[in-house]
Amino acid sequence: MRITRRETFNAAHRLFRPDWDDQKNLEVFGKCSNPKWHGHNYTLYVTVEGDVDPSTGFVLNLKTLSQIIDKHVTDKLDHRNINLEVDFMKDKLASTENLAIGIWEQLEGHVLGLGARLYCVKLIETENNYVEYYGPTK
Amino acid sequence: MRITRRETFNAAHRLFRPDWDDQKNLEVFGKCSNPKWHGHNYTLYVTVEGDVDPSTGFVLNLKTLSQIIDKHVTDKLDHRNINLEVDFMKDKLASTENLAIGIWEQLEGHVLGLGARLYCVKLIETENNYVEYYGPTK
Amino acid sequence: MRITRRETFNAAHRLFRPDWDDQKNLEVFGKCSNPKWHGHNYTLYVTVEGDVDPSTGFVLNLKTLSQIIDKHVTDKLDHRNINLEVDFMKDKLASTENLAIGIWEQLEGHVLGLGARLYCVKLIETENNYVEYYGPTK
Amino acid sequence: MRITRRETFNAAHRLFRPDWDDQKNLEVFGKCSNPKWHGHNYTLYVTVEGDVDPSTGFVLNLKTLSQIIDKHVTDKLDHRNINLEVDFMKDKLASTENLAIGIWEQLEGHVLGLGARLYCVKLIETENNYVEYYGPTK
Amino acid sequence: MRITRRETFNAAHRLFRPDWDDQKNLEVFGKCSNPKWHGHNYTLYVTVEGDVDPSTGFVLNLKTLSQIIDKHVTDKLDHRNINLEVDFMKDKLASTENLAIGIWEQLEGHVLGLGARLYCVKLIETENNYVEYYGPTK
Amino acid sequence: MRITRRETFNAAHRLFRPDWDDQKNLEVFGKCSNPKWHGHNYTLYVTVEGDVDPSTGFVLNLKTLSQIIDKHVTDKLDHRNINLEVDFMKDKLASTENLAIGIWEQLEGHVLGLGARLYCVKLIETENNYVEYYGPTK
Question: Which domains does chain B have, with CATH numbers?
Answer without folding.
Answer: 2-9+40-133 (3.30.479.10)
